[in-house]
Amino acid sequence: QVQLVESGGGLVQPGGSLRLSCAASGSIGSIYLMAWYRQAPGKERELVASIRSSGRTNYADYADYVKGRFTISRDNAKNTVYLQMNSLKPEDTAAYYCRISSMYDYWGQGTQVTVSS
Q1: What is the mean pLDDT of residues 10-38?
Q2: 3-state DSSP assignment of residue 61
Q3: SS3 call for 65
């Protein structure tokens, strides 16, 4: 059974940083996509960043509102995806979810990020 375990959320002041982690356990198979989404209260879930591998090259994509502030990375040996979040703003407050896609889509349980002074 595949499980995704997220960690790294919390409360941070505006301008601060957090690093989210999402580790997959179990027989997940060949992963072709890893991504982070977020969902704020009353809003739909939205894609924050994604990363896919082609050979030894990783290709990352970002939502416009996080470009230059967030960095997605992956450790294939550990089946783990990270999201480094810098220069955090109050509008980044949301529950953050990881998604890992192989033959199936798997989702993490979510980790809360709150940006407030």
Answers
A1: 94
A2: strand
A3: helix
Q: What is the pLDDT of residues 29-42, one digit of tens each?
A: 888 899 999 999 99
The conformation of residue 64, written as its DSSP 8-state character, comes to G
Q: Is 11 helix (H, G, I), strand (E, B) or coil?
A: strand
Count of Cβ atoms closer than 10 Å to residue 82 Cβ:
19
Here the tokens at position 73 are 């990375």
State the average pLDDT over residues 51-58: 87
**Cα-only R_g, the chain:** 14
Residue 88: CB partners within 8 Å, gap ≥ 6?
Answer: 12, 14, 15, 16, 17, 18, 69, 113, 115
Q: Could you give the count of Cα atoms lying within 13 Å of 71 in the half-sphere of its Cβ? A: 9
Q: What count of other Cβ atoms lies within 10 Å of the Cβ of residue 3? A: 12
